[in-house]
Every structure is written in C-alpha cells, then in structure tokens.
Amino acid sequence: MFTQLTEKKQNAEELKEIAKKYEVIGVDQPEDNQLVIVSAQNDGSACKIMLNECTKAYRGAWDFAIDGVYEDNHTIFIGDIKGPANKGYGSVCMNYLKEVAVDQNVHVIKGDIAERDWDHLERLIHFYEKHNFEVNIDYTNKCGEIEWTPAYQ
Predict the structure, then answer these.
(1) Is residue 109 classed exposed, middle or buried when 0-12, 13-18 and 19+ CB atoms within 10 A define those classes?
(2) What one-character-per-residue DSSP string does the chain give?
(3) Among 10, 74, 128, 153, which one is most buried in terms of CB atoms within 10 A?
(4) Residue 141, C-beta contacts closer than 8 angstroms, at least 6 positions apart
(5) CA distance 74 to 78
C-alpha cells in the first residue's frame, strides 16, 4: 500500500512538472502497462506529441516524441519519430496526434519514408498500416510516402 501511494505521489509530481512546460493531453498505458504522460507542444506551425514514462523522475526531456509541422491549415507532415521501438509508445503518440488532427479539423497527416529508414522498413510499414495510413513504397529508389485521413472525410 505504501509503495502504491509513493508511486501515485511521484506520478502527480511528474505530471505537475510536465504541465509547467507543455499541455498535458493524456495519461495512458502502453503495452508494458506502465503509466505514461502524454503532452503536446502546438504553436500552429509545429505540433509535437511527447511521452514521458512515470517509472522515473522527470528531468525536463521526453522519452518518446512525434514531430510534425503544419504544411497548411489542413495538413500535418510528420518530420520525425524519436524514441525506443517496441514499447507501444509510438502507438500512444500516434493516437494522440490523430486526436489533435481531428480536433483541429486537419484533413491529412502525411510523411516520407527515406533511405535512412530502410534498415527498419518492415517495422515502419507495419506501424503505419496498423494506424490506418496508406503506405506507398518505391523499393527501387528506397523511398516512400505515408498518408492518413480521418474516417469522417
């Protein structure tokens, strides 16, 4: 019981510290069942969805992030996804990015797959298809494009 109370207090303190710097948009449980705090930094030209683990103290940096930029009022372009693979963090962040897009009447989330991604191409294809993106790969030129549109379109 004492351990649970200590963990809840630590989580509340981390949430407070993150909220000082970013907009906290959710608390979630990815595949490892550990709580994570999801926050956003959105200034109208860029949209960053960040995730922080609750298993360690917040030190001012995120543990996972999806960086996007607004190409126009209705399109977010994913510039980068940063953080560890296979922990469920990408799915958590992608779901929140899609929520932000719908809330802001964004019609498309898109991005590129570049040659630098080729060593983990199959994982990327699986990830984007799992999140209902259309994935087009040019295997000859080692590049590709991804695109998601909300169901209401």
Answers:
(1) buried
(2) -HHHHHHHHHHHHHHHHHHHHSEEEEEE--TT---EEEEEEE-SSEEEEEEEESSS---SS-SEEEEEEEEETTEEEEEEEES-SSSSHHHHHHHHHHHHHHHTT--EEEEEE-GGGGGGHHHHHHHHHHTT-EEEEETTTTEEEEEE--TT-
(3) 128
(4) none
(5) 13
**pLDDT at residue 4, as a whole number:** 47
For the purposes of burial, counting CB atoms within 10 Å of the CB of 124, is it exposed (0-12), middle (13-18) or buried (19 or more)?
buried
Query: pLDDT digits over 21-64, tens only?
Result: 678 889 899 877 788 999 999 998 999 999 999 888 778 889 99
Q: Using an 8 Å Cβ cutoff, are 21 and 35 in contact?
A: no
Lookup: tokens for 56: 């360690």
Residue whose structure tokens are 């949430």: 15
Q: From the centroid of its chain, how far is CA 17?
A: 20
CA–CA dist 47, 41 (Å, integer):
6
AA letter at 108? V
